[in-house]
Protein 1
Amino acid sequence: MRITIEFLSDGEIRLPIHYNHILQGFLYKNLSDKNYRKFLHQQGYQVKNRKFKLFTYSRLLGQFKMYPQDNEIGFFPPFKLVVSSAVEQFITDLAETLIKSDFNTMGKQKAEVSSISVHKKILPADKIQIKMLSPMVAYSTIINEESKKTEYYSPWDKKFTEIAGENLLRKYEVLYGERPANQEFTIIPNGMQERKFSRIINYKGTYIKAYAGIYWLKGNPELIQVAYDTGLGSKNSQGFGCWEAVEPGKT
């Protein structure tokens, strides 16, 4: 299930350039069911030794201005946020809370929710072109006797698809209790644009290498649907891996 939240404000909303944590905090704050919010924040849905929040969200969408000298970005109303989850309770609770609120804060600044629209489900397909609404991440943690290192991968590296595909299979297993018979899944970059699409995001002091841009997804339509609902790749609840389908003839 997916919604787009549109915000209005009296003027420009100034945020840090790296504002993922602000959006994450906004979403958690606007879950009215305290027990569910605590479960999601502290535990999440688990399969074996892996935990998933099963939601993702876009960057803020709309007109903006960069203020590099202040390390800030300003958004001009109206601006939008796309939020997606495979768990209806998450979206329903969030939407109902926002509708009932007189006003909300975004980075300690007042921002009114002017509308919430519900997206139609994507049509099942075994190949689809997508555009990232927030950059996607795939990584592995390398541990030896002396250190622990996080290695990030590029979609131009087959390791990226392997990690993102395994991540999807685990999410599918959380949702349906077993893995699908058809486990085919591939991410195909749209041309040689690795450097152009690369992003470095500072999330609470941790630098994460992620990738924006246009790609093709190919494989089991059920896995592609899970990727749409929960996010592609890792760290989805931190604001990574949200995407939309590209309409034919548009990029």
Protein 2
Amino acid sequence: MDKAAKEESVSIGSILHLFGVRGFAFLLLMLALLNIVIFMVPFISILFGLPMVILAAQMVLGFHAPIFPAFIRRLTIQRGPLMQGLDRALYGVEKIERYIKPRFLFLTHPALTRMHGLVALIMAVMVVLPIPLFNVPPSVGLAFLAIGMLERDGIFILIAYAIGTGCLFLFKSLSHFATSRIR
């Protein structure tokens, strides 16, 4: 049994250390899913979107793992609730697992992490914009990208890129509509 399993609580820093580079994808997935589930709360997209922007920017800059201030890394999570959350997550993963498998592995190569980070950054900026309902599609794209990166599934990454492209057209159309109303 390792040291973390014996302790009553686990630090955020030790969890992030376990995930390493995959910590980016894991955190992006959690934030995107939260934004999708709680999208009707006003300005919630800013709360979840800003950390996504920071994580994606760190990916673009080539960081090997997410970096958070020491006071956040020292925060602890009680072992019981953590295990319950992991059990629930495993249940969800088991449901979609039949669709996820390593495919198109060239798209999951570590050399492409910065490019995936750039796509994530663009979608995360779209999430931050406080436009009701318009931040859900980029959150879905971020969730697909994160799953693709975590599970090395190039199909999910391609779907994320397609969703991101669609979001760009959606926001461009919204911009065009808004500017035409101003004139």
Protein 3
Amino acid sequence: MEECSNTGIVIQMQDYSIHDGDGVRTTIFLAGCKLRCQWCANPESWTTKSKLVFYRHKCIGCMKCATACPIDLIPCKMERPNDTCTACGKCVEVCTQKALDIACTEKSASALVKKIERDALFFRYSGGGVTFSGGEPFLQHKFMRVLLGKFEELGIDSWVETCGHFDFETVQDLIPKFSHIFLDIKHMDSEKHKNFTGCGNELILENAKKIYATGVPMTIRIPTIVEVNLDDENIEKTAQFILKNLPTANIELLPYHALGKAKYISLGIEDKFIPFTTPTAAQINHAYDIFKSYGIEIIEYR
């Protein structure tokens, strides 16, 4: 029997997105991920636990948060807000400067669908819909199963972005419900993949082949980082893998950016942020030329 859940842990919902698929879309970011990519722009997604977020630059030191805290913490003074905080949200309610917030909150499927249904007209006229992202959205497959059923009933198109690190058998009934799948391939060398993400790439590559076999259109996305995976050898091996195993998949390169640093600071884990080098346009075009030489189609949603 398929397992379902009427609630899930949501990082955020991004309305009117034009970068995560065709048309105007709403991107639902679901919490939870087994990878620990050193360049991750969404570190709040690493667990499904609710977390207090503190934006120091907004704080005026009014101390209302300390008065509201039921366990006598001073949220605006904690270097690592999540070490002892229960993320009850009482301090967020009284912060007039919006210097405090809660990341990863429990949402009901009915509330989420109600919100998305309001944008159905935009989806219909633009050829858009909903895109699940994360984190790794397939880790919350019980919640996704309920949402996909509702979206299917409403005629709302669904896409998904995945890192590929999940149990395929558990979610194989969900794959055909998507019109398109974005799958990340971060490095073809498993040892280097493990060094940079905490996990090898074997499961990811196997899942890529299994997803492709379902016939759902696929785009391979590569977060391109100079020090990690932009060398010709890795690009060549990636192209060879796609040509052999995913011959009709297209490719999109996503240049590294450091915009996630603010999240590390707000979560009190700034020491975990590792800066990398953003590739130049010439470097990206060179990598694209390699893929083109293998007959692989290039696509850009950004």
Protein 4
Amino acid sequence: MSGTHALWSPAPSSEAPLAVLLHGRGADEHAGQALAAHIPDSYQTVALRGPVSLGSGRYTWFENQGIGRPQPESLDASLAWFRDWRTREAPDRRVVVVGFSGGAAFAGAVVLEDPTSVAGAALLYGTVPFDAGLATEPGSLDGARVFHAQSVDDEVMPKDLMDRTWHYLRMDSGANVVALRTSGPHDVSHEASEALHRWLEFIEQRPSES
């Protein structure tokens, strides 16, 4: 695993919530930082580099056993890495995880491991990490707040996993979910960006349950 590389924005206030930005597979913290464009100015942001190196300056959050299908041992190790990072760097912060593509699966893993460990989890154009050692039974996300966006035209993520994610989050997870489907490529659409912005503003105004 790589060491921690992170790009922090200035904190707008001492009470500002922290949005942890998680890039897609094969990118790095600079790609994660691009997600900051979708985050309200009232948040501080930190873009993390995934702990698993793919070589040539490319990183990820876990080894795959197929697109959108994390290897359980690798995912478990990265979750331990993330818990350690948060204990060191943001032990008393109100945190929302915002992940794109492979980062969305990792954000889903964070909230599945402990639904109230974060104030919210945004899964953008990625899947719930099914069959990866985490409980995904009905009600496994009781107490969680989740935002999910996906595209009906997504050319990257497997359709069966996207459909399964859509059904699970909305029907079975037990989470408080805002979900929308958009058209277009594997990228955050304007519609999804605006909806995420509103959801984060709502999260900021709600009492913390973590």
